[in-house]
Amino acid sequence: MSQKPKPKPKPKDKDKEMNKEELWQAVLAEIQFHISRANFTTWFANTKIISKENNRILISVPNSFSKEWLENKYNKLILKTLYSLDNKIKEVKYEVRPSLSLLKSSESSHKAIPKTDLEEQLNFQEFKINKETNLNPRYTFDNFVVGSFNELAQAAAWAVSKKPGLVYNPLFIYGKVGLGKTHLLQAIGNKIIEKFSSKRVLYIPAEKFTSEVITAIKNQSIEKLKTKFRKIDVLVLDDVQFLAGKEKTQEEFFHTFNALYEKNKQIVLSSDRSPKAIPALEERLRSRFEGGMIADISFPDYETRLAILKTKLQEKKVNFSEEVLEYIASNIQKNIREMEGALNNLIAHQKLYNKQPDIKTARKLLKKLISPPPKVVSPNTIIQIVAEFFDLKKEEILTSSRKKEIVRPRQIAMYLLREELKSSFPFIGRKFNGKDHTTAIYACEKIKKEIENNEKLLEEINLIRQRIYSQSC
Ligand code: ADP
Ligand code: MG
């Protein structure tokens, strides 16, 4: 039987059809799936491909800090992703074009940059944060799915948004990563600014609060900081577990807390564990946290996971088969962010190939996400993640090299082994090519001390921590 060769559903001829914007949006769609949200928003906001000539790509970035990070930390990932979309691409370069971000953020600008379809669909709302309140409008009560796992937290949050300062104060929400704490906290903030337009709301991650305190101390502007925080009507502090061990920040927060509380201002807090379980938290703060309402969020059941996926699809205006959704809902059980990551991955694929992924394709695309190798935080994991963060090989960090670009990451790795795993100094020394325990002590002390004054270092270390814990169970 003669058979006509079936026209294979060909991927779009990317060279011809994918323009610069589409290509970059596809890259972003893929990258946001590989790195934490914090990193994604910090380093990829206001980036753009400005030229693609001779298979060399030029990307504009808003400032030199972003340039440095993209070049040093993300170049490999960017190049790899670009290459997977267009295998002729040879090189990527970065150029600072500050005007681009100004143009984009200025509302009065007539030269709005046209949005591509994909951007519209994936909706990088991470980039649309309100400068004053720090709130992201994408987090609302309307798109927050309620199930038995989170209903207490949602009800308390709702009550607070109706009567800020008057019902549960503080409201403390805790639960594991990716289960909706930030969403709920921000929904409270967004609801309050919608209902009470004169109320001053501020959303701030505890890490950011810490670095503001450190900077204020350094610049002797602590009074200014105090004034800023005491003018707020609703203070939303996310991930307070990061205050652990930071005495100065805790002290500052304690005073801010009291000042606000006395004036019936609302305080909302979140953490990955209950106040009791946060180590190195001053007793007086712990008892403040426990003085209001504490609600936890646990893991969503299967039906709720499916409902969440459907809500997300509606938001993103796409559709997948029930089979594909059930596959995601039954395989990703403990992290809603990962479920969303899975969806984004499929959406990017659908957009590129102009075809809804079937279950086979979905399985293939989501393999990495769905059956990741078992991970626990071990000394090796930490060393590996530090190495990757600085674009080094693990072996390089473990050598005795005295090169600056290796010494520093090595000291950071030593510091994290000490801080996160409470490893002994002799153990740390042995782990690093049989070094003496005094070398380990020196490294840990050095980093510990430097963090107090070096905001960038603190930020780096916190990003590494985030990676360590987002990779472990
Ligand atoms: P956490 O702060 O607990 O780590 P997030 O609030 O960042 O988690 O939630 C991770 C992702 O999952 C977000 O994109 C959020 O919108 C989504 N999400 C979490 N819980 C829900 C829910 N109940 N309904 C809809 N989306 C949710
Ligand atoms: Mg969060």
Question: How would you describe this structure to a colleague?
Answer:
It is a single chain. This protein is of the alpha/beta class and 473 residues long. It has four domains: 13-100, GMP Synthetase, Chain A, domain 3; 151-297, Rossmann fold; 302-365, Helicase, Ruva Protein, domain 3; 379-472, DnaA protein, C-terminal DNA-binding domain (Chromosomal Replication Initiator Protein Dnaa, Chain: A). Helices cover 55% and strands 9% of the residues. The chain contains 23 helices and eight strands. The chain has helices spanning 14-17, 20-31, 37-44, 64-85, 98-105, 117-122, 151-162, 181-195, 206-218, 222-230, 247-262, 283-290, 302-316, 322-331, 336-353, 359-365, 367-370, 379-389, 394-398, 404-421, 425-431, 437-453, 455-471; strands spanning 48-53, 56-61, 91-96, 171-175, 201-205, 234-238, 266-271, 293-297. The strands form two sheets. The chain has a five-stranded parallel beta sheet with strand order 5-6-7-4-8, with helices on both faces. The protein has a three-stranded mixed beta sheet with strand order 1-2-3. Strand 1 and strand 2 (56-61) form a beta hairpin. Helix 22 (437-453) packs across helix 23. The longest helix is centred in the first third of the chain and has 22 residues, at 64-85. The protein is globular. Adenosine-5'-diphosphate (ADP) binds next to helix 8, helix 13 and helix 15.
